[in-house]
Amino acid sequence: MNYFLNKGENASNSCNINLVAQSDKIYIVDNHLVAFWCWLQLPSKLEYELIHIDRHYDLVPYNEVYDSGIHNFNWENSMPEDLTSLKTVVNGFEYQIIRWDNCINLFKEIHPNFFRKTKFITQKNGTFNYNGEYEEKEIHEIVGWCIDKTKNVILNLDIDYFFTNIGDSTIQKYTDSYIDHVAEWVYEEYNNFTQIIFCLSPECSISWEEAKRITNIFLTKFDLKI
Fold first, then answer.
1. 158 and 54 Cβ atoms separated by less than 8 Å
2. Residue 92: CA count within 13 A, CB half-sphere
3. Which CATH fold would you assign to the domain 2-64+99-222?
4. How far apart are CA 84 and CA 105, in angstroms?
């Protein structure tokens, strides 16, 4: 496992990056905003199909206040921490441009033809703002699919999908047995995926401990562990 960042189990929230690791086509990150950087590692001249499995849509729309940041930045040879360096000022307050909830639409702004089609498997949290070809599916509808390697499929899997909120509490929504079933499908189709991103989202997955435990259900299929 190659670690680009390993700062420890600190708060991730919407803007912080603590963990970025890679093994071949698999990326493990703590914050979904790092998916932006992971996609930059792929040839931008090709088109890809994105499978987005996440409790949230992550589709905060592009806003022109981001222009000076994402369009003028030199993305070639960028590193994960560069994502947190891009700032903008709105009404006198400084904000980080790339966050966990807007990385898809911001990436499409600099590479509008990158995602040929997107499949959203979510709990429908957040507002849906997407300009492009898409489908909304349930998890049981896609697990078991034979992935078409020629379509350059990216699996973007946030561990928080397997959790949900009841009142102020976060609980595990799916059993370990079912998650293992999903992991087995990912393992079986590994060679047909172009890229696989596992995001821990610890604040949305009860804790770092629980997020890592569920992530390792997937990683152990590949003799990996975090």
1. yes
2. 0
3. Arginase; Chain A (3.40.800)
4. 17
Neighbour-count burial of 90, counting CB atoms closer than 10 A to its CB (0-12 exposed, 13-18 middle, 19+ buried): exposed
Please report, for the chain, the start and end positions of each structural domain, with discontinuous segments joined by +.
2-64+99-222
Radius of gyration (C-alpha) of the chain in whole angstroms: 17
Angle subtended at Cα 102 by Cα 182 and Cα 154, rounded to the nearest 5 degrees:
35
For the whole model, what pTM was predicted? 0.96
Here the tokens at position 103 are: 């990385």
Residues 180 and 217: beta-carbon distance below 8 Å:
yes
Per-residue pLDDT of the chain (226 residues; tens, 9 = 90+): 999 999 999 999 999 999 999 999 999 999 999 999 999 999 999 999 999 999 999 999 888 777 767 888 999 889 999 999 999 888 888 989 999 999 999 999 999 999 999 999 999 999 999 999 999 999 999 999 999 999 999 999 999 999 999 998 999 999 999 999 999 999 999 999 999 999 999 999 999 999 999 999 999 999 999 9
Overall size of the chain counted in residues: 226
d(CA 132, CA 120) in angstroms, rounded, equals 12
User: Can you list the alpha helix ranges (DSSP code H) found in 85-207?
Assistant: 103-110, 139-142, 176-188
Classify residue 127 by burial, with Cβ atoms within 10 Å: 0-12, 13-18, 19+: exposed
Give the Cα separation of 180 and 138 in Å (integer).
17
13 backbone dihedrals φ, ψ, rounded to 5°? 50, -145
- Backbone φ and ψ of 19, nearest 5°: -140, 125
